[in-house]
Automatic annotation (TrEMBL):
Pfam families: TetR_N. Residues 33-52 bind DNA. Keywords: DNA-binding. PANTHER family: ACREF/ENVCD OPERON REPRESSOR-RELATED, TETR-FAMILY TRANSCRIPTIONAL REGULATOR. It comes from the Bacteria. This is TetR/AcrR family transcriptional regulator. The lineage of its organism: Bacteria, Bacillati, Bacillota, Bacilli, Bacillales. InterPro entries: DNA-bd_HTH_TetR-type_CS, Homeodomain-like_sf, HTH-type_Tx_Regulator, HTH_TetR.
Amino acid sequence: MANRQDPRVLRTRQLIKDAFRDLLRTKGFDSITINDIAQRATINRATFYAHFEDKYSLLEEITEQVIREMIPEQVMNASEFTGEICDQLIALTHRYIEDFYRICRMDSKSMATIVDAKIKKLLQQKIESILLKEDTCQMADRKHTEIMAAMTGSAIYGAAYYWLNEKNTRTDLLADLVRPYVMNGLSRSRMRE
């Protein structure tokens, strides 16, 4: 594999990502081929495979990159899972899902499954990292923290996805509905420890 810091490698990877995004706007994920991506990126298939295993790994990387870029600095540096942090995670999850489904043709179950799983995993990781920064007396059991983070991330994702499908656009109302549920769940779980 090529040096990922080499400017030529970075440029080629960006060409591939841009080509893939362009194709997602006009073609269904399932009908996009590596050949399509390579032609649009003005590279050959071998060059594509030097950078990505397949279109699924490309989709995962793009999804992760976009989400990480959307995470506010306050959330990145949070040392406590507060209502405000919860609100920001709800808003960014809703915004990402909305942008993704609006821009991309979502006629592929495999694509939706990959994107949904990646969003949930990244949410869980971010929530878990915040919870682990909190008082270790409250979060002594790592497995318990992982489960709490998974449930919290799933609740946020599920609510944001439902909200989008119901054509609701007011994320402040979504946050007002979800935050108490999430914060109460975390609070009760901590009291049992």
